[in-house]
Specification:
The protein is an all-alpha fold. Helices cover 79% and strands 0% of the residues.
Length: 81
């Protein structure tokens, strides 16, 4: 990050980054010492949290895929006739 900050400035909230890093390390340690059922619950929780934090990006991706799949095919079919 320090090498490329002049060319590609990256905004980083150090407080959030530290919390996320601590949570990731904690979950990794918990996974080592627990059974499969707890691991599955942790995977579901982290997936849910990931979706909540990235909902705007996920919506954009789904919209683009929807437009590509439905609108893109319809345009191609019309041009072929």
């Amino acid at each position: 990050m320090y090498d490329v900050k002049d060319d590609f400035p990256i905004a980083l909230n150090k407080f959030k980054f530290t919390i996320y890093l601590f949570l990731a390390i904690s979950m990794s340690i918990v996974v080592i010492f627990t059974n499969t059922a707890v691991d599955i619950i942790l995977i579901l929780c982290t997936t849910f949290i990931f979706v909540i934090f990235n909902i705007n990006i996920i919506k954009k991706i789904v919209d683009k895929l929807y437009n590509f799949m439905f609108n893109g095919r319809m345009k191609n079919n019309v041009k072929q006739k």
